[in-house]
Amino acid sequence: MTLADRDSGLLALDVLPPAGSQGAERGVPARLPPAGRITASRFATAGRALRFGMWGLVALFILVPCVCFLALSVSPRLFDQGPQWFTLGYLKTIFTGSSAVSIVNSLWVSASAALLGLVIGLPIAWLAGRTSLPGRRFVSLGMWLVLLLPSWLPGIGWERLVVRDGVLTRFGLGSAFVTHAIMGPFGVVLLLGLRAVPFTYLTITASLAGLGQEFEDAARVHGASRPAALRLVLPILAPAIWSALAIGFAESISDFGVAYTLAYNSHFSLATYQLYAAIGNFPPSFPAAAAIGLVLVASVALPLTLQARALRGRSYAVLSARTRQAVRRQLSTKGTILATGCVALFFGLALGAPAVGTVTGSLLADFGASSRITFANYSGVLHIPGVSGPIYRSLVYGVVTASITVVAGFMVARLLSRRRTRSTAMLDFLLLATVALPGVVFAAGYIFAYNLPFLSRIGVDIYQTVWLLVIGYIASSLPTNARVLVGPVSQVQSSLHDAARAHGAGPVRAWLSGVLPAVSRPVVMAWLFTFSGIFLELPMSQLLYAPGSPPLSVAINLNIAGYHFGLGLAQAVIGVAIALCLVCVVLLAYRLLAPKGWRRIGSTIRG
Amino acid sequence: MPEANPNGRGARHRRALGAGFVCAALVVGAAAGTTPALAAKKAKKKVPLIVYSAQGYDQAMVHAFQAATGIPTKLDTNSTGPLLAQIQASKNNPHWGLLWVDGQTAFAELDDEHLLVKHFEPKVKWNALGKRVIPKDKSFVPTGITLMAAVAYTSKVLKSPPTSWSTLLSPKWKNDVGMNTPTQSGPTYPFIAGIMNYLGSINKGKQFFQKLKANGLVIHTTNGPTLAALASGQIKLALVQSSAAIGAEHTAPTLKVKYLSPVTMLPSNIGIDAKSTKTEIAEAKRFASFVLSKLGQAVMKTGTPTGDSLYYPVVQGIKPRPELPSLASVKVQHTNPYVWGPREASINSWFVNTITK
Fold first, then answer.
1. What are phi and psi of A2, to 5 degrees?
2. Pairing between β-strand B73-77 and β-strand B49-53 as defined by DSSP bridges
3. What is the pLDDT of residues B165-182, one digit of tens each?
4. Is the ipTM of this complex over 0.85?
5. Does the beta carbon of B155 lie under 8 angstroms from any beta carbon of chain A?
């Protein structure tokens, strides 16, 4: 870039209309000198092409497969899954019998779980981010561990703990009341709620990072009490809170791990189980599964509508160059004990129970008939030929998926955080709707959409290749990733970018030096979040993996479902440990390699 | 001719549109251009045989087959449910060469949909068990037999196990019996069908399971979790696949296995995709023949010694593994898959909605 170019850019920025005006929305300056006009015009065209490309990819890899699958609910003939071109028969079945019961169960359970996730996750995020909570550095690590565990593991863990003659009974702690409570709706809500906590924690933490001390100070200066100051600050976190609720709801309603283990064994049917049962039956009824999938998609309209109503017409851009580091509050002795106890209780429930389940399963070679501890299963895992292949494969899939998803997720989050238009509202709904769809729907949709005979004839033969699996991983991770990033991205004021441009940086450099430092921490978190979700992902892997290249989750599932229950659990423990190591390495690398200024944003100082 | 304004609205839209298509084309092209299937076609190489299998010894068998024949073979090893779901979802454009899973009802259904190669029988001498499970139209090939359901119990807890299916309904076994669910466990529907077949009608079978439920039947997903429930003491009797129960006996010596008469045969079978190319079909036939050869049977018997290798052979001259109990004192029945196959969806739905609920 020459000096003249820089000057032109500077001039162009000088005459930009105020943010929020028509011209600024379109990115077209009102009056520009010729060179500046061309630069701005190219920039706008590139931006538009990027948006168009983004929409195209979302349509190709998210919309088309989902529509293909869901269309089967009214037109099974479309993909040769029944004789009718049009029928409402499958939709009618979801309003009767066990399907209706399971859908109602899923709706209220997911709403309760999302709320529970917020009630637990918000205070923990605040305690870890803004107070002198002892061991606060480990809170983040613990949250990643909760996130890394596939949801069936807590399900099995709790079951093994409370069932008749289970672990609690063996230690003389068995209670019919506890068994009854856990093996029922309460237990299901509790488990799904605990699963929703990391989503809330990550979303709120990312937003808290952009919320400087000035708002609280302003309130206190004007005589507000602490609760009153909190009442001021909490609404600023509204996008993150609503995002957390929406993600918690969508993740809970699409969860299969708990539905398949604890809920199923408690005779408490959830919609995802009904959906899987329709596909698991032979012959599989994809139209019946699609009808349930349609209800799951429609159900996310509920949190989205509430979110839209709550946030309509407000701006939450608070992160600017003037944002001041927040002051870490010193807890009193009593407060420290109480806070530590509550946080410890959460981790005890979220990690302790799965640990018991895994330990009893993986360290007792004889299916747990005796209490003899043995490492036979671990030794077995290490001696099975080719066992390292699936682990390595899943690591690579996770890293590639997370790296691509986080870039796409950031772009989508940026679109969503701009002024609400019909297209962004549609994108928002589409993304959250796909979060609510179980992985198997995505996977089956990919088979229907990308295994059409005519595609094979023209040489597009991507079914059962690594390509389609990775594309599927990215498409299924993108919605959650984008929603995790919406909070932090909506806090970034455009002045950060503008300031860098005003100092002569080009568009890319301005973004790298002005915006990236402010969002680097949430971006790293989003990367880890995606990696954790993909590393042990099962439903999509089962249907889409390339023959000869099974990922880790498929290998684990084969052992657990078949003859080697303990071996499978040992594999799961090793897998989770490896993934946790990678999470630690990434967090450590960020701490060591990221410039001090990047880490300062969102950090706190002692009060 | 006046030049078009390069920065005009229409031009911008065209450029954006073009960029979008280029983006999509690049992604699709990159993905399509490097797929193994297309690369194989371009290079005119042998088409690899794709094996869909839910057998524990499949990896060992694929290696042995490749070594013996030089035919490149790719394995999609999975539970039976996902494999059948894949076949059903991709039936317009199938990617599998052969399917190798337990149970014959799914094969009968696939045969009814004309998805299997008919009239193929490897040149082997079947034994008495094998002769009973060969389909009339030779649309699939039995490779071994396990039984459904074996009754697993812990000798430390239980000294006298039940002696007949009807005794499971007595108060003595209240809350003590566990089994798998048919929607998650492939071998469980043949067991349910077997009980109905034995009792003489679907209704009588339904009544049996309803009484079992009233007596506190505990249902888990698959063999593994049901056996884990037995070991932890949640249940005292586990109705699981014979190979799973005998395999568990190996790891937990106090765990014992008993067959109740009649016990239902659950053959493992190979079916070949009728829509495959001639080359692939020929390769699949060689695979099926290889499995039933002496070498193939040796691989089956040693591939997973505490799992699927615990089967009763179907060809003459091959003995079962020594851990397997004799079938001399127990009545073994075979349910016709062409009769019970079409009933599978409705009976499973009934089971899930009535018994599992």
1. -85, 170
2. parallel
3. 999 999 999 999 999 988
4. no
5. no
- What ranges in A301-421 are assigned the alpha helix state H? 301-311, 333-347, 353-362, 376-383, 388-417
**CA separation (Å) from A326 to A126, A208, A210, A523?**
12, 9, 9, 20
Question: Which of A369, A463, A543 is the closest to B231 by Cβ?
Answer: A369
Contact yes or no for A283 and B88 at CB 8 A? yes
**Window B:76-135, CB contacts with A under 8 Å:** 76-79, 81-82, 84-86, 88-93, 95, 105-106, 109
A45 and B15: CB-CB below 8 Å?
yes
Partners of residue A52 in chain B, C-beta under 8 Å:
16-17, 19-20
Inter-residue contact B112 to B83 (CB < 8 Å): no
Statement: residue A47 has pLDDT above 60: yes
Phi, psi dihedrals of residue A479, rounded to the nearest 5°: -60, -50
Gap between the Cα atoms of B97 and B207, Å rounded? 41
Tell me the whole-structure pTM to 2 decimals.
0.78
d(CA A384, CA A346): 36
User: pLDDT, tens digit, for every residue of A264-322?
Assistant: 878 888 998 888 888 877 778 889 999 998 888 888 777 777 776 665 555 555 555 55
Between CA A432 and CA A435, with CA A434 as vertex, the angle to 5 degrees is: 65
In whole numbers, what is the pLDDT of chain B averaged over residues? 86
Give the chain A residue whose CA is nearest to the CA of B249.
Answer: A366
Answer with the residue of higher pLDDT: A144 or A192: A192
Chain A residue with CA closest to B58: the answer is A548
Among A276, A127, A133, which Cα is nearest to B352's? A276
Yes or no, beta carbons of B224 and A560 under 8 Å apart: yes
Angle subtended by helix axes A565-593 and A136-148, to nearest 10: 140
